[in-house]
């Protein structure tokens, strides 16, 4: 059984993707950025605040799928400045310090909006 989960963002229909997909007991959350419900970037020039917003957005998608952050088994993160890994890591640890999912962090040249510094995708198992 497959369930597509939408956040309602206009990009989902324009590009043809779901915020998350649940199949069986697995949930796959698409790359998620630090954009709030009004479509504004949270924490311009602050990767810590953007990371927190990313994870809060991921948490909303997981809840719609019947899961929580505690069910996350992997995070994949793309940041535009690897030198800011510690501030990213501080936010990641606040949410996942006890969960300790497998994690990947890589630097990319840019994201879809010039003010975005971080994008995270997660896999969860319930």
Automatic annotation (TrEMBL):
InterPro entries: RutC-like_sf, YjgF/YER057c/UK114. This is RidA family protein. It comes from the Bacteria. SUPFAM superfamilies: YjgF-like (SSF55298). It comes from Gracilimonas sediminicola. PANTHER family: BLR7761 PROTEIN, YJGH FAMILY PROTEIN.
């Amino acid at each position: 059984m497959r369930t597509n989960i939408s956040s309602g963002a206009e990009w989902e229909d324009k590009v043809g993707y779901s915020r998350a997909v649940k199949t069986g007991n697995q949930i796959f959350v698409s790359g998620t950025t630090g954009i709030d419900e009004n479509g504004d970037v949270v924490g311009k020039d602050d990767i810590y605040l953007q990371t927190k917003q990313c994870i809060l957005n991921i948490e909303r998608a997981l809840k719609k799928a019947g899961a929580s952050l505690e069910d996350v088994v992997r995070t994949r993160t793309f940041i535009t400045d690897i030198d800011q890994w510690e501030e990213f890591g501080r936010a990641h640890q606040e949410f996942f310090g006890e969960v300790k999912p497998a994690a990947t962090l890589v630097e990319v040249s840019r994201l879809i909006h010039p003010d975005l510094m971080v994008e995270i995708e997660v896999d969860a198992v319930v």
